[in-house]
Every structure is written in C-alpha cells, then in structure tokens.
Specification:
Blueprint (H helix, E strand, L loop, with lengths): L2 H7 E8 L2 E8 L22 H4 L14 H6 L4 H12 L10 E5 L5 H8 L3 E6 L4 H10 L8 E5 L7 H12 L10 E5 L9 H11 L5 E7 L4 H8 L3 E6 L14 E8 L1
Parallel strand pairs: 3-4, 3-6, 4-5, 6-7
Antiparallel strand pairs: 1-2, 7-9, 8-9
Helix pairs in contact: 4-5
C-alpha cells in the first residue's frame, strides 16, 4: 500500500475527537457503510500532503477494490470517537503529558493523534498493509501533534514481543530496556467473525504487564460479549460510563468502555 493508492482510494475529511480537530484520509468506497456522518470542515481547505499530492489522480479503476478488512481500518468509527471523548474529559488536566501510549488496531490513527496532541508519546500500531493511511495522516496532522508519534506494524496473531519492543526503541531512540507503556488503547478491535479473539487477548496480556493499564472501547454488534467475558478471565475490568457525549457523536449502537488491569 503506497501513497498513490492512498490518494486514489481515500478522501481527506476533518473530524472532531476529544474537542480537537484532525484531518484524516478516510476510505471513499466505504462511505455508505459507516454509521457516523463526517462533520463539515470548520477551517476551510484540507491541509496538503505532498507525498500524496505528488502522484496526481489516476482513474478510479486503476486499482482493484480495497479489501474488506482494509476498508474497515480506513474509517473513523464511533468507538474511537467515544473513547477519545472519555480520555480527553475524564482524566485530570495534564494527565497525558509525557505518558507513553500504545494503540492497537489504530486504523486512521485519529485516537492516537488526540493522545499526542495532549502530550503523550504514542505508537500507532496496525497490520503492515494498513499503515499507509496512518503514515499519510501523521504527515497531514504533524503541526497538531506534541508528543512523539510513530506508526509501527503489529499483528496480534503473530506477536513477537522482543521484535516489537526493539522497533519501538528505534522509533523513540531509547534503549530497549527503557521501553514501556503506561496505557494500551483499543477501539473496535473486537469485531465478530473478523479477528481472532484469543490471539488479541494473548497479545493484550503480554502488553499489559506491571503498571500498564489497558483501555478498550467497543460497539456491541453481536458476539462481542463473548470476547469481553473471556477477557474477564485475565483482567480486572471496570466499565466506564460515557459522560456528556458531545453533539454529533452517534451512540445509536452501544459503546462499552472498560479499563483493564492484570488480574
């Protein structure tokens, strides 16, 4: 997945999350699938991304359709917006300054951008073939990010902890021994029939050691309760309410937020 495909298959939209605005490349062909309406821009023209702009605009049929899982990844979903609202409003002022945050299944990266704008150092992770949009979105939003923000591949069905921590150390330019996370964030990482729950839980357990806390948000569409029940076998889970959701955040389908600590 390269920049010219990002240019052809996505559109640049402005979203509000946690009270802040970010521009993200979002998949064009999936617009009818998403259950939130992107807000109209309040700031006019979208920022330019030279790496994408340079390739021009080939015909739409120049590539085969983007595969289904990638179409899901390249959207902004209500669970991410709900979790962003929770993280921005339900922690003390300045809480995220200097925190180290890992996001699993980052998709467009918008949740991680919010955390970086609040001062956290962030690793945005997803499967390798989904990272082109994340990297493009980092470039577009670079002036709004305060903490370090890097995109790295992570496939929880084949998670190699030593390899991943080594790549984090290289991205952050710190010794491997100094790599740790205060929080691991996941929004809509549980999706019935698409992802292996046991592999996801195993990866999450590896990452949430010691003082590392996990925070998950998920729209409940069907069998997600089964995964949440399995997670409760390995974590102490505390459900968090969505307090004063902002205007325009669609909660037609329930979003459940949980804070996790190792049990």
């Amino acid at each position: 997945m390269d920049n010219d495909l990002v240019q052809r298959k996505t559109e640049l939209l402005e979203y509000t999350i946690g009270g802040q605005q970010f521009w993200v490349h979002s998949i064009k062909s999936a617009r009818d699938d998403i259950d939130i309406e992107p807000p109209k821009s309040e700031s006019g023209t979208a920022p330019s991304d030279p790496a994408c702009d340079a390739v021009g605009s080939p015909p739409e049929d120049a590539d085969p359709p983007v595969d289904f899982k990638l179409r899901l990844a390249w959207q902004v979903w209500p669970a991410a917006l709900a979790l962003g609202h929770h993280l921005a409003t339900q922690f003390p002022g300045g809480h995220w300054e200097g925190k180290r945050v890992l996001e699993l299944g980052t998709g467009t990266g918008i949740l991680g951008f919010l955390m970086s704008s609040l001062g956290a150092d962030v690793i945005l992770s997803d499967v390798a073939h989904a990272l082109a949009v994340v990297e493009a979105n980092i470039r577009v939003n670079k002036d709004r990010l305060r903490g370090r923000c890097a995109a790295l591949s992570l496939d929880w069905t084949a998670f190699d902890e030593a390899d991943f921590y080594g790549r984090v150390a290289a991205a952050w330019q710190v010794p491997v021994a100094d790599v740790n996370f205060d929080y691991v964030l996941c929004s809509d990482c549980i999706c019935e029939g698409l992802y292996l729950w046991d592999a996801f839980i195993k990866c999450l357990r590896s990452l949430c050691q010691g003082n590392t806390r996990g925070i998950t948000a998920n729209v409940i569409r069907g069998k997600e309760y089964e995964c949440l029940s399995a997670m409760a076998d390995h974590f102490d889970m505390e459900q968090k309410p969505i307090v004063d959701p902002p205007y325009g955040l669609s909660l037609d389908m329930p979003v459940l937020i949980y804070e996790l600590t190792g049990s």
